[in-house]
Design goal:
Helix content is 5%, strand content 51%. It is mainly beta. The protein has a single domain, classed as Porin (Beta Barrel), CATH 2.40.160.
Length: 398
């Protein structure tokens, strides 16, 4: 049996207010926020006949409980959300069978093989004090779903194929595109519209990895109610959706790379997303009940996210022992959750965001870390005030 864990604490100073939904952008402010970001416990057990069981439980924001969130996308309404107050969730829980040493089949809850954070999600796996907001805004953060997975290990090539439950389109919005369509507001997960994932990773040499991934999945039949439906004259009143459903498929494609060569460490992702019938989803979401606690803002047909970071270990030059890494780094991000929207949808420049981050990452003995960085965020219009922040994070991984 193998036991692993990681924990993270975070402090942030923000020179801007919370309300970005104002003419000219957010007002100047001086905010300090402290957070027990997460504590994750992972257990892996191996049995005879190459059978494995793995599960991960993550405690976020200090544990469980309900808290009020002030949501400016909803005109300053307060919303009570358990997830924002802290939560204990099962991130992974699956049974895995290794077949002949080159293949493996998994069934259960596991990470969706899209984006960079599906693999490099532990705090020592990225340089900045926070995960890349370009990726965590456009798609669910460290995205996990229920389903079946096949992995093939073909020399320097790894192929991952997955069939999982799809997203719920009631959570789609202008600000977060489809990322809040990740199911979890209800006790059970709806999989009437499944999704398929294919990922290929290639290691051309030691320390270098490049790859691509694709995701295609339906969403309309995963809504809490059968409400995204067309009208027709000859519908069958004996079925829940007499005229069927309006198709609203999500298509996501990404290319990604990571390298660690001597003192240099770098990684990045470019991700594009497309939503079918986004106008119909937006029109129906606009009439959703407040009790569902979703944003109800119009969702764009397309989204784009690009980010990359690079650092250089200067510990040897400073005479530090080999157990230490001290890496000055930079990270650049650009993401647009209203990328080239349909003609009738206003292309809000507030949702085209570019972030530059620079900082210092320290690791000791491969497990204890401390990070500090400063970020500068700009928007798609010079009329919107830029936002500056300072982040400090510390924690452990073992």
């Amino acid at each position: 049996m193998t036991f692993r864990a990681y924990g993270e604490l975070h402090a942030g100073f923000y020179a801007y207010g919370l309300d970005q939904n104002r003419a000219g952008g957010s007002r100047r402010d001086r905010r300090v926020e402290l957070d027990t970001t997460r504590l994750a416990l992972e257990v892996e057990a191996r049995f005879a006949d190459d059978l494995e069981v793995e599960f991960e439980i993550e405690f976020e924001h200090g544990g469980t409980g309900a808290a009020y969130e002030l949501e400016y996308e909803e005109f300053g309404e307060f919303e009570q959300e358990v997830e924002r107050g802290g939560e204990a969730i099962v991130e992974e829980l699956y049974l895995r069978k290794v077949l002949g040493g080159r293949f493996a089949v998994s069934v259960g809850r596991f990470y969706v093989a899209v984006g960079q954070l599906s693999r490099y999600y532990r705090p020592t796996a990225y340089l900045a004090a926070t995960r890349a907001e370009a990726e965590t805004t456009v798609i669910p953060q460290v995205w996990d779903e229920l389903g079946a997975q096949l992995e093939a290990f073909l020399g320097r090539v790894k192929v991952t194929a997955q069939v999982v439950n799809g997203l719920d389109s009631t959570g789609f919005s202008s600000q977060f595109w489809v990322s809040r369509g990740h199911q979890g507001r209800f006790e059970s997960i709806r999989a009437s519209d499944p999704a398929g994932v294919l990922r290929v990773d290639v290691q051309p040499r030691a320390g270098v990895e490049v790859g691509a991934a694709g995701y295609v999945g339906g969403t309309s039949r995963n809504r809490p109610k059968a409400d995204l439906v067309p009208t027709c004259a000859d519908g069958d009143d004996d079925v829940v959706a007499p005229c069927g459903y309006v198709a609203a498929p999500v298509v996501i494609a990404d290319v990604h790379a990571a390298l660690q060569l001597g003192p240099v460490r770098a990684q990045g992702t470019a991700l594009y997303g497309w939503l079918g019938n986004a106008n119909a989803v937006s029109a129906r979401n606009d009439r959703l009940s407040n009790d569902l606690q979703v944003l109800r803002s119009p969702v764009s047909d397309q989204a784009l996210a690009i980010w990359g970071e690079a650092g250089w270990d200067v510990a040897p030059a400073l005479g530090l022992a080999a157990a230490h890494r001290l890496e000055p780094f930079v990270r650049l991000e650009h993401y647009d959750t209203m990328f080239r929207p349909r003609a009738e949808l206003f292309d809000n420049p507030r949702f085209a965001r570019t972030v530059a981050t620079a900082g210092l990452s320290y690791q000791a003995h491969g497990g204890v870390f401390a990070k500090v960085d400063a970020s500068h965020r700009r928007f798609g219009s010079s009329e919107l005030r830029p936002e500056n922040a300072l982040h400090v994070a510390t924690g452990f991984v073992f």
